[in-house]
Design goal:
73% of the residues lie in helices and 0% in strands. With 296 residues, the chain is mainly alpha-helical. Helix 5 packs across helix 7. The protein is globular.
Length: 296
């Protein structure tokens, strides 16, 4: 049997392709620039967090959660009224935004390809996602505060709800589109109407993702200052009346941070630390406890 003679040197000493070398160099440069950008971002984030922790931990005390904001020139004080006001305003805005956002997301996922109203809704939602929060605050001021002739916690909740709604809408829409058609076809084959398939099958399959979207919306509005300056304003005293000016953490932090009083600036750092870690906790909860795989 004749066997071909193989020359090992001919196969191993093939010339390196110039195009391959150029692409490999571009790949390495891209990876290096990506790592550099990531390192700069992480370094800045670490710098902010370390500064916030160092200056904010000194303000954490029982008084901060039990006493109201101090008067100008007085010692001590806390943020009890601002914490309570923020919980009331953000809680009401969440109650307003969640059902509207989820129902709108279901509408877009179910009928988004069939009519122009859904396309317009999606377009307006995208605009609201990128709209500056101060513009939304001015809109609510013109429509609500200027009409009622006074600032109120209700106005602040409406402004924050307008910011949260598009986040919930887009998250719900995107999550519902991940549900496989085979699951929907099985439900339709059993004779279920479309609204029941949407609510009891499609939404239930991605409920964890929808809850994650709601939590991300809450994290998004928890630190908003500009809309509350035009709507809820502030209140130095402890108040449960949502129909009047109401203290809230973002506005108190904004005012105290620029004040000439040391205890006010210290409370501002403490409030900023509280808001930051609250948002961080919401993000951790949304990514761990409510993580869920889409059924095949």
């Amino acid at each position: 049997m004749n066997q071909a003679v193989i020359n090992p040197a001919a196969g191993s000493a093939a010339p390196v392709n110039k195009v391959y070398r150029k692409r490999l160099l571009q790949h390495r440069i891209g990876i290096a620039l990506s790592v550099l950008a990531m390192s700069v971002g992480l370094a800045v984030l670490a710098w902010i967090l370390v500064t916030l922790i160092i200056k904010g931990f000194g303000a954490l005390s029982v008084n901060m959660f039990t006493e109201t904001t101090p008067a100008p020139g007085s010692e001590g004080g806390g943020l009890a009224n601002a914490i309570f006001g923020s919980l009331m305003i953000v809680g009401l805005s969440t109650l307003l935004a969640t059902p509207i956002g989820i129902l709108a997301g279901i509408y877009l996922a179910e009928y988004g390809e069939e009519n122009k109203i859904a396309s317009i809704t999606r377009f307006v939602t995208d605009i609201m996602l990128s709209a500056p929060s101060i513009v939304i605050g001015m809109f609510v001021w013109a429509m609500y505060v200027a009409t009622t002739k006074h600032y109120s916690g209700y106005a602040g909740s409406v402004a924050l709800a307008l910011i949260a709604v598009p986040v919930v809408v887009r998250t719900t829409d995107n999550m519902l589109r991940l549900v496989p058609n085979s699951l929907l076809e099985a439900a339709f084959a059993l004779g279920a109407p479309r609204w029941k398939v949407a609510m009891l099958v499609r939404l239930r399959a991605v409920k964890a993702g929808v809850i994650t979207g709601v939590l991300l919306a809450v994290a998004r509005i928890s630190g908003e200052t500009a809309p509350l300056l035009f709507t809820a304003l502030n209140n130095q005293f402890f108040s449960k009346d949502m129909n009047g000016p109401m203290a809230n953490l973002p506005v108190v932090i904004y005012g105290f941070a620029m004040s000439p009083y040391d205890n006010w600036r210290e409370l501002a750092w403490g409030g900023a630390l509280l808001v930051t870690f609250s948002v961080l906790a919401l993000n951790i909860v949304s990514r761990t406890l409510f993580s869920q795989k889409i059924p095949n």
